[in-house]
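Field notebook, page 279. I keep forgetting to write these up properly, so this time I am using the form the group agreed on. The chain and the ligand, NAP, are recorded exactly as supplied. Prediction of the bound pose follows.
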Amino acid sequence: MIGQAAQIGRRNPVDMGLKGRHALVTGASRGIGRAIARVLVAEGADVLAVARSVEKLQTLAAPGAVPAAPPAVGRAAGSLRTRGVDLADAAAIDALAPELARTDVLVINTGGPPPGRAADITDAQWTQYFKSMFLAGVRLTRHALPGMCARRFGRILIVISSGVQEPIANLALSNALRAALVGWAKTLAGEVAADGVTVNCLAPGNIDTERLAELGRLRAERQGVPVEELRRQAQQAIPAGRFGTPEEFADVAAFLASERAAYVTGTIVRIDGGMMHSL
Ligand SMILES: NC(=O)c1ccc[n+]([C@@H]2O[C@H](COP(=O)([O-])OP(=O)(O)OC[C@H]3O[C@@H](n4cnc5c(N)ncnc54)[C@H](OP(=O)(O)O)[C@@H]3O)[C@@H](O)[C@H]2O)c1
């Protein structure tokens, strides 16, 4: 049995129905967003990957860089295009309107905000990150929804954080703004479910990305503890005993983006190796 499973590999021939679907993934130059863009291409979707750094996006689009995995059995990979967009810039989002009008799968994944205590966040910071982390997703969705509803197929995925269920110390901006996104997403899910559009939030626990490493370094400095020691402690606290990979996260996103997930909406899906203890 084990030999057979190894032969089949990570992907089995379940048709996700993503071939030829148009997807737009934000925050796609690295980490979780990049992995989602890659798996959607591998599943046959035509993907527009956006982020601020055109240089980093180009490495994603370099020959041989996609797909991340061999195309799913029996299907050809899709295509990848990239575009530099700052999610804090409303006009830049509005300029994506023609793309969004034909987008079937919208992955709203923003940059994470800096650490900070709840009492210390300034008005300027609240406003800045409200724009790039909350309003950006609302604007993207506003452009994409009419087409999704008309075609009676749409998948809106929003990358949030486990901090919405158990606020993470010293990440006040993230905890608050992502909770706002959940409230908006849940409301929207009810409004468009009968049109064939699903809206789901994906909550990472600790996914091994550059951001996780950066936050770890800052915490280690603050606490005067070696970064490797903090990393070891964090992994020990996760029932799976390790951080997740961006690819493991992206596989769940691909399922939620697929035709197979038509009856899943208005949920928060945790990808956290069992880290969250609450029901
Ligand atoms: N990794 C985890 O364990 C974890 C846990 C909880 C929550 N999260 C959250 O999940 C999201 C993805 O995580 P990650 O670890 O992959 O983060 P990451 O490595 O920091 O990647 C963030 C992505 O967003 C892009 N981005 C940042 N600001 C942007 C802006 N204003 N406009 C357009 N694109 C922007 C970045 O590219 P450019 O710099 O090129 O724009 C990058 O591609 C983040 O919001 C993070 O806070 C992650």
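OBSERVATIONS:
- The first strand starts at residue 22 and ends at 26.
- The chain has two domains: 23-111, 147-279.
FOLLOW-UP: compare against the apo run.
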